[in-house]
């Protein structure tokens, strides 16, 4: 504050400082020193506030994360019809960008692309700078046309728990260094163009819960999995081969899809351990040996074992409650178990079953409880059904090319062929 004498001198002093008396000039000088000091304090305080604001602004996002996001943005572009990157204005706070989630000054989640169904997605490459987001726990990419390899730098993200880059054009090998991500729980690289094998290091991930690598071009064998929390394993539509040791998959599995590969060898001892399965698809492989009876007691809605080389009799331990069972195109033999009569959609065609069809099948078929019963291309010798019986319109029955004349004429799939009866010379037991 200015004192009273300084205020009086400043008021009485003429316009030009030189015209003041010596006393007034002295008083005026004192006032100016006080005024300048006060001004300097105000200026210093303003500078402090400005510096504080700058510090607050720079603390919004770690500089390394800021630069990493810039590099990631430069390598990717919206496909026509997408405006995902419209909010990525680097003069603003990147933590407010679409798909960017922060905790403090670090990016912890990065979800690139508009997640709405039908979104055009993104194109370009995933930049190596992704590995600079040191706190990243989740990284995902919506379906689009992102190409190139999966960056090796992702293996630097020690906190990563969720990695999903599916339905794009990612190519090259799966980096073996992903095995360094010891906290990884979900790895989804499905529907891409990946080649090479599944690194054995993936099988060592201790927290892995979901592994989806389906619809790629992978080859070689599947490593054993050590994680006791693995619940979903989807490897269908690849070129994978080899066999499975009884302990190679953990009993925690609930979803297992291995179809459209070249796997071989027996699986009875393996399947006997996987009693928590609620989905099982081993179709279109070269698996051999028996199908364990207890598999038909698992809490499964859809059991796909068709087009393999399974052999021997099939003996469920109890009445089968699975709605769809497909055992077609194998080498199964023996009698058809009446335990299958409770299945809504049953495909036993193109096997080596023989004998009579159990009466319980006929009862449930006529009651429309069975919707599909395909028994064609076997060695069956009879079925107790009245030739005048009317098959419900909602049900399909095919009996052709067995060791009997079908007592009822029903439409069959085109691939069943035109021959109604198997040649006598092929039938082990013929009761024409």
TrEMBL record:
It is found in: Membrane; Secreted, Cell wall. Coiled coil: none annotated. Residues 65-103 form the Leucine-rich repeat-containing N-terminal plant-type domain. InterPro entries: Leu-rich_rpt, LRR_dom_sf, LRR_N_plant-typ, RLP29. The chain crosses the membrane at residues 36-61. The keyword Signal applies. The keyword Ribonucleoprotein does not apply. GO terms for cellular component: membrane. Keywords: Cell wall, Leucine-rich repeat, Membrane, Repeat, Secreted, Signal, Transmembrane, Transmembrane helix. PANTHER family: LEUCINE-RICH REPEAT (LRR) FAMILY PROTEIN. Belongs to the polygalacturonase-inhibiting protein family. This is Leucine-rich repeat-containing N-terminal plant-type domain-containing protein.
